[in-house]
Write a structure and sequence with these properties.
3-stranded antiparallel β-sheet; binds 3,4-dihydroxyphenylalanine; 7-stranded mixed β-sheet; alpha+beta; BirA Bifunctional Protein, domain 2
């Protein structure tokens, strides 16, 4: 019996299989109910008591060897099965990817950035949570200044010094504090005001601030820059008009209208018959603001402007309700398939 066990061990050790079926044959021949290992275990009952210990040990070893071999063979064929099923079929058509569309406000923001970058403006950004200095005080708007009432402010934790910025003009201050003229930059971003939500007002919206500081910057430079912008954004035939206005951080200040992009100035319901629509505020940076930001107002001058991205988008695409921009209605958003 010993020899037969040893022979079987040898057979198991040298066995190789080249298919799953081959492995199954091996299992039946050795480990099934009628297999050779079982057969030897049956025979073990007849072994003389003094031989039992030794033969029993060998039999157990044989059974373990056979089982180990079987599982390693099974594993081999299963894993090779796996790898063949994972092989890529490069001829298969690709799955369709659902591509979204850019949000209209991003489309217009990118257009604005592109237009100003052509004339040397860089993009700078600032924090949405601001302190009083950057949002108001440095911009020539001290605590008791009536202009603060124009912009109802969200404060954070009832701390009157920390607030959600009400205007991207705050970025002007950061830029001037951290760099030296010449400065030519625009700052797009989100702003917040404590206003009731309606078709024409929202508690959060977007602005782009523009700032140009250098020696001998004049109002004519401002006018030319804005005219270039208006024509690029709304078409070559667009006219501009500047009206005197007031902002605490500019002196002199103006508001700019463009000829109505819909009726070309003839008068329609969008421009309420005026032929003009207001588009932005602007002016020459007040020397006090330059000094607040450690820029010598005797050496340098500059202009600034600020516009609402929602306003530009509404005029460009005839959107009549501000709320559409934040409601995420896919039927609205899908209509803006610009490349930018
Ligand atoms: N910050 C102003 C606002 O939110 C817009 C503005 C007006 C910005 C005139 C300017 C400017 O830089 O010169 O209403």
């Amino acid at each position: 019996m010993k020899e037969r066990i040893d022979k079987l061990v040898e057979e198991i050790e040298s066995f190789t299989a080249n298919s799953k079926e081959h492995v199954e044959e091996f299992r039946i021949r050795l480990l099934s109910k009628k297999g050779k290992v079982k057969e030897l275990f049956e025979e073990f009952k007849t072994v003389a008591p003094e031989m039992r210990k030794e033969i029993g040990q060998r039999l157990n070893e044989l059974q373990n060897k056979a089982q180990e071999k079987l599982s390693s063979l099974k594993e081999k064929f299963e894993s090779s099965d796996d790898s063949s099923s994972k092989e890529l079929d490069l001829t298969q058509p690709a799955e369709q990817m659902a591509v979204g569309t850019r949000h209209p406000l991003s489309v217009v923001r990118n257009q604005i950035v592109e237009i100003f970058s052509k004339i040397g403006f860089t993009v700078s950004e600032g924090p949405e949570i601001e302190d009083d200095w950057h949002n108001f005080t440095a911009l020539n708007t001290p605590a008791d200044h009536p202009a603060r009432d124009m912009q109802d402010t969200f404060f954070i934790n009832e701390n009157p010094d920390i607030l959600l910025r009400t205007q991207t003009s705050s970025v002007q201050v950061h830029v001037m504090e951290n760099s030296k003229p010449p400065i030519r930059t625009i700052s797009p971003g989100r702003v917040y005001r404590n206003e009731a939500i309606s078709a024409r007002a929202h508690c959060q919206f977007h602005q782009v601030e523009g700032l140009y500081i250098d020696k001998k910057v004049s109002f004519a430079d401002l006018k030319q820059t804005l005219m270039y912008f208006a024509k690029e954004m709304f078409g070559e035939e667009t006219q501009i008009r500047l009206r005197p206005s007031f902002f605490p951080f500019t002196e002199i200040s103006a508001e700019m209208d463009i000829s109505c992009p819909f009726c070309k100035g003839a008068g329609c319901n969008i421009c309420k018959g005026a032929g003009w629509v207001e588009i932005l505020g602007c002016g020459m940076v007040d020397p006090a603001v330059l000094d607040n930001c450690k820029i010598d107002s005797k050496q340098y001058s500059g202009f600034a402007f600020g516009m609402g991205i929602e306003r530009v988008t509404m005029l460009k695409y005839q959107v009549k309700d501000l709320r559409l921009f934040s409601e995420n209605d896919i039927r609205f958003l899908k209509q803006f398939k610009a490349a930018l």
